[in-house]
Amino acid sequence: MSHYGISTEGTTIVSDFKDQVKGRIFLITGPSQGGIGAETAISLAHGSPAAILLLGRSLPKIQPTIDAIHAIDPSITTKFIPISLDSLASVRAAASSILNDDSIPKLDVVINNAAIMACPYGLSTDGFELQLATNYLSHFLLTNLLMPKILLAAPNARVINVASVGHFASDIRYDDPNFTGGKDYVATVAYGQAKTANVLFSVGLNEKLAGKGVRSFALHPGSIVSGLQKYFTPEAMAEALAQWEESGKKMPTSKTLQQGCSTTLRAALDPSLAEQNMVYLDDCQPSEDPEIVQPYAIDGDNAKRCWVMSEEMISEKFEL
């Protein structure tokens, strides 16, 4: 809807689309207190979902979100599912627990929200650059493993990938995604690569799942102060500002957490979005404007190449 924009709040979206929340099952990664994922889950609680699955590293970090959900509506089923997104084995274990849980008959909406940003160079337990592994590759694996239960929610199932305007910093570095073992590492470029992959994942899912009742969208939630910035040193900030100035883009307007989760929620809930072909949202609006989303991030051929690279990395192919 055209009246949604930068100031729209998450609870407004939930109120407008209560019929898309009530009785449905939502999965959210990274819903730690004070973050966009937690605010998304808490906003959904106002719409009477059947269940909210909360995937995170430890229960103490997620418990405040669970408590906030139950303070709004104690009848909502909440399930904490442990997952370490820097480990493919942990992702597989989490997916297996969901697939084998008979109390989770389907997954109506999967929201791949968890992320780290501009962290020091490091490798995941599987040997991949940490931001690419955590922000993207783990979600690629998780979503594909959960696809049997996502498909059971057709024709209104959704997969939402929380990306970022940070994708402007880099396309996929196909020849060197690990930054030459850290020798060529630039934290903001690595973040950009991972966020480009998030968008391309939605493009790829839509192509592979066409006609199967599942749509995927990616989005930029906005500039929000949260735990995501814990690695953002003054040096990293200066680096990011330099890249931003070089791109000629205006500095984004800061948002509250409620404003920050609204684009995620519109992508997850608004049925009208399925009537158009755009995959990327910013300030609650779908767009293909190159000032808002880089053409390489929504390119179909690039999405296919990224998908193949991802399957090679995790040593598993998925026939959707």
Automatic annotation (TrEMBL):
Name of this protein: Oxidoreductase
Superkingdom of origin organism: Eukaryota
Gene Ontology molecular functions: oxidoreductase activity
UniProt keyword annotations, A-Z: Oxidoreductase
Listed InterPro entries: NAD(P)-bd_dom_sf, SDR_fam
Family per similarity comment: Belongs to the short-chain dehydrogenases/reductases (SDR) family.
Pfam families registered for this protein in UniProt: adh_short
Annotated organism of origin: Pseudogymnoascus verrucosus
Disulfide bond found in the keyword field: no
